[in-house]
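Consider this:
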Amino acid sequence: MDKLIINGGYRLEGEIAISGAKNAALPILCTSLLTSDDIELTNVPELKDVQTMLNLLEQMGVRIRKEDDKLILNGSAVNNFYAPYEMVKTMRAAILVLCPLVARFGEAKVSLPGGCAIGSRPVEQHIKGLRALGAEVQIEGGYILARAKKLKGTRIVTDMITVTGTENLLMAATLAEGETIIKNAAREPEVTDLALLLIKMGAKIEGIGTDRLVIHGVDRLHGAKHEVIPDRIETGTFLCAVAATGGDVTLTKTRDNILESALNKIREMGAEIASGTDWIHIKMNQRPKGVNFRTTEYPGFPTDMQAQFMAVNCLAEDASHVIETIFENRFMHVQELNRLGARIKTEGNTAFITGVGKLVGAPVMATDLRASASLVIAGLAAQGETHVNRIYHLDRGYDQMEVKLTAVGANIKRVKE
C-alpha cells in the first residue's frame, strides 16, 4: 500500500494543469451503453475510479480503445447487463450503468454500490424514478433487478436533490417514449456536461442547468465527440493548498465559473485571485483568515470542498465554523487534523475551528477521498514530516497529485509502506 511523505513549510510557485472532472467523466462513460456508435472523449482523467468504470463497461461488452489523447467507446456489442458486487463495491458511481441498460436493452442486474464511508447515499431515488418510467424493479440479494419492455415518459419529482440520481434518470428518459419531466433535478456542472453530450448524441433536453429538466424521448441515439469539463474539486483543492502554504500559482485548463462559491471563500481568506477563460491565478502572502460556510447543493458551497477548506481554517488567525448538511459522516478527517495540532471540536453537523499558529507533522490516516486531500494540504503547511497513509482513497479522485505539487515546489513523495 502506498503512502505520501510530506516535508512541510514550502511556498508553492509555478503552474499546475487541471485534469478532467472525475464526477463528469463517470456518467459520460456510461453514455456508451445508450448507442451502438462511437463515443469519442477527450480530457478523461486517469484515475482509479475511471479505470474501474472502464473495466465494468468492458466486461459488459463495450469496446474501448485509446488513440493519442482520445478515448473511444463503442457499445454495439454489449451483451452482458450485469454489474457484479466485486466491481461496484469500491465506487458508488457504478449505479450509473443501471438506467442506460434498462433504457436500451430492457434489463439490468446491478449490485447495490459501495464507495467512501461518508454517510448514507441512498439509491431509492434512482429506483423510484425508474419505476415511474414503467420499469419493474426488485432488490434481491444485494442486487437491483430491473426490467422494462419500453420506458415511458412521466413526471418525476425526487424527494431530495441527487446528482447521480438526476444523471441516471436523465439517461433513461432520453430513450423513453414521450415526454419526461424531472423536477428537483441537480444543477451541478457535471450534470450539465452530461446533458450537453446527450444532446450531441441526438437527445432532446430542455432546462439544462435548472432544477426542471424536460426530456423528449427519441428512438435512438448516435455517436458524438465531447471534451470533459475541468475538475472543479481538483481546482479548489490546489487553491486551498496555496492558501495554506502561501505562494503564487497559476492553474491552467480550468474555469472560474464552475466553482464561484469556493472562489469567493478563497478571496475571503485573503488570497488574490485573477482568472481568464481557461486559467485561475492565486497569490497568497499572508496567514489565512478563517471563513464560515455551510455545504449545500450547487450553486452553494460543495460538500466535496469542505475538508480542504477546513484544513486551511486550521491555520487561520481567527475562529471559524463549518456546517455539513449533505453527508452525516463527513467529519472523519477532524481527528486526523487534530493529530497535526489543529484545534477542532464537533457538535452534530457543525465543526468549530480555532486557528493555530502552526501545525506539526505526524502520521495520519486518510478515511475517504476528500479527507485525503485535506491531510495533504495540512501536511504541506505543517512543520516537519507528515506521513499520509491509505492514499488509495486519494488516487480515486486525483491524477498524480504528488507529481503536480512537486512541480510547484512541494517536498512530497510517494513510497510503499
User: Anything to note?
Assistant: The chain is about 30% helix and 25% strand. The mean pLDDT is 95. The radius of gyration is 21 Å. Residues 226 and 342 are 43 Å apart (CA to CA).
